[in-house]
């Protein structure tokens, strides 16, 4: 009798253990991370598909200057191995006077998570600097880093159309590096200049 109870207990215990380890907590991507630290093993999922519709290649041209940005939605990626999240990631190519200055497009893969453009923040309406946005219009604010300098910042991406073609307005600005040691040379300026770019989807 004791042996039978012991076997039953072990069976129930292993079923419970498997059910716990086999499931990860699914949270919406807008769920705040306390202290910017996510819940270990959790999946911050784009449950409302607010990150959809940005995938694609977009090109800005002005004379002999061409800036290409490629964006994609990566599903259940992990930057730190502690938790997972859906992200918009991207890379770019800059050509000036027929000379390719930088090209990181090949770095973009379905599982990449350490990219020059990366994030999942969705802004709605006029929040944080879009005075002419409609009240329910959504746009992205992602991290942006310059490949050839220590300059880092952010990029706002707003959907629009140009002559009936899908397009985005991409606004780039830099916030760092924040400090330079005394006696050290000034940081190299960014190869991708800050500003607004009207980019047509290819």
From TrEMBL:
InterPro entries: DUF6705 (IPR046551). Residues 3-147 form the DUF6705 domain. Residues 1-24 form the signal peptide. Keywords: Signal. The keyword Signal applies. This is DUF6705 domain-containing protein. It comes from the Bacteria. The keyword Signal applies.
